[in-house]
Design goal:
There is one protein chain. With 217 residues, the protein is α+β, with helices and mostly antiparallel strands. It folds into 2 domains: 106 residues, no CATH class; 72 residues, Orthogonal Bundle (434 Repressor (Amino-terminal Domain)), CATH 1.10.260.40. 34% of the residues lie in helices and 19% in strands. The protein has 8 helices and 7 strands, in the order βββββββαααααααα. Strands 1-2-5-6-7-4-3 form a 7-stranded mixed beta barrel. Helix 4 crosses helix 5. The longest helix has 15 residues. The relative contact order is 0.14.
Length: 217
C-alpha cells in the first residue's frame, strides 16, 4: 500500500527539498506526499503541492541519491534518481516498517521511455535540432555527459532516452529548460496522455479508465 512522506527544510538556500518517509509509529500523521511506487531508479509521488519539472528532492533514506522531477500531471510526479538506490537500502526500509515490499518495483518506470517510444514523440528530432543549431557534434555531448557517442546516437534515433540526472545535464548543456527538452508538442499531447494513463494504471495496479489526468494550459 502507498506510504506517507513529509518535506523538511534543510535550511540551506538552493538545497534539494528533503523528503522523509513516515514509519508505522507515525500512523495517523498527515504527510505532504503519498509515495505510490518506489524503485532503484525512480519514484511515483502524489501531493497537493505544485510540482516543478527539474526540481530536486533529497530522499533521506536513499543513500546519497537525489531525485529529479521528470514528469508531472496534476498531483502526480515521477522522480528519477541521479544514482541507483541499492537493494540493501530498500531492504532496510522494508525491515524498519517504513515501506512494504509491495511498494517496490524494479528499475525505471515505463513512463521514462514513452517520450522516445511513442511514434512522433519529437524528443529525438528535438535533440538533433538543438545540437545542430549550436554547432555541436554527438561527441561533444557524449564527453560533456560522460556517455558514449553510441548513447547519444541512440537518443537521436529514438532507440533510447537519457537516464536519471542526464536529462537535467543535457538540458543545461544545450541551454534550454528541461520541459522544453522533453517537449510538449500539441500534436503529441493526446497520444502522450493516453500512453501515460496506461503506464500509471499499471504502476498503481488499477485500470486506465480510473486514471484522470488534468492539464493546466
Amino acid at each position: 500500500m502507498p506510504v506517507l512522506a513529509t518535506f523538511s527544510n534543510t535550511g540551506e538556500e538552493g538545497a534539494a527539498q528533503r523528503l522523509r518517509l513516515s514509519h508505522e509509529s507515525s500512523a495517523g500523521v498527515r504527510g505532504d506526499v503519498i509515495v505510490h511506487c518506489l524503485a532503484s531508479g525512480s519514484a511515483l509521488l502524489e501531493s497537493d503541492r505544485a510540482w516543478v519539472i527539474g526540481e530536486q528532492i533529497d530522499f533521506n533514506f536513499a543513500d546519497s541519491a537525489i531525485g529529479i522531477v521528470f514528469w508531472t500531471s496534476g498531483k502526480l510526479a515521477i522522480c528519477v534518481f541521479d544514482q541507483a538506490i541499492s537493494d540493501a537500502t530498500l531492504a532496510l526500509e522494508i525491515l524498519s516498517g517504513a515501506i512494504g515490499p509491495e511498494l517496490i518495483t524494479s528499475g525505471y518506470f515505463p513512463e521514462l521511455r514513452f517520450h522516445a517510444q511513442a511514434e512522433g514523440s519529437g524528443f529525438a528530432e528535438r535533440l538533433y535540432r538543438l545540437r545542430v543549431e549550436r554547432g555541436l557534434k554527438q561527441l561533444d555531448i557524449a564527453e560533456k555527459l560522460r556517455v558514449s557517442t553510441a548513447a547519444v546516437s541512440g537518443w537521436e534515433s529514438g532507440r533510447s532516452v537519457p537516464r536519471g540526472s542526464r536529462w537535467a545535464e543535457l538540458a543545461e548543456y544545450l541551454g534550454v529548460q528541461l520541459a522544453e527538452l522533453i517537449g510538449d508538442d500539441s500534436n503529441d499531447l493526446r497520444k502522450l496522455v493516453a500512453t501515460s494513463r496506461i503506464d500509471i494504471a499499471r504502476l498503481a495496479r488499477t485500470t486506465p479508465d480510473k486514471i484522470r489526468i488534468s492539464l493546466d494550459l
